[in-house]
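Exercise: predict the fold of this chain.
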Amino acid sequence: MRTKATPPIAHLSGKGAQPLIEAYFELNQLKQLYRQGWLRVGIPPERCESVAEHSFGVALLCLFIAESWFPEADASKVVRIALLHDLGEARVGDITPHDGVSPTQKHALERQAVEQILGRLPRGAEYLALWEEYEQGSSFEAKLVRQVDRLEMSLQASVYEHQGLGDLSQFFASAEKAMESPSLRAVLAELQALRPTRVPPA
């Protein structure tokens, strides 16, 4: 698992820091952790986004989309889920479908990580429940975040293609499979139409 640095939480070992500080040092690892799928297709490390950057993009998109296009959604809940959805990766890394880890095993590893990171916070159980809601897609808001997660990936792929970093068709195809909302499918279709006419191979 390629990262920019070792997990910051290691610096607090044996120091007995309060839960808020420990949680921050844990989640700070998301800033060190590359999105592994981009590295796999040849995006150079110096251009590769971190998991934290991805999560930030998802949260902002969720804010814009939920408040403007889905009035039936609880926009606050949508954003809260978006902020939490990748938190388990701070401990287990960015596991991709190419890593040979089953979805069941991935979920178990990430759930344990989220429990450990948030367990000592006053509302940790509430945050864990929101994370689990995302994983299960058990609410309208969770299903919306799951789609926006893929939409953000396709938007980042579009940026990389316009920067001349290769043909990232596979990421658009992956996003299309996850898109259920006609509104979000329309955004993805427009994004496809905006792709460079000659995309160099990755």
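Check your answer against the key: The first helix runs from residue 19 to 27.
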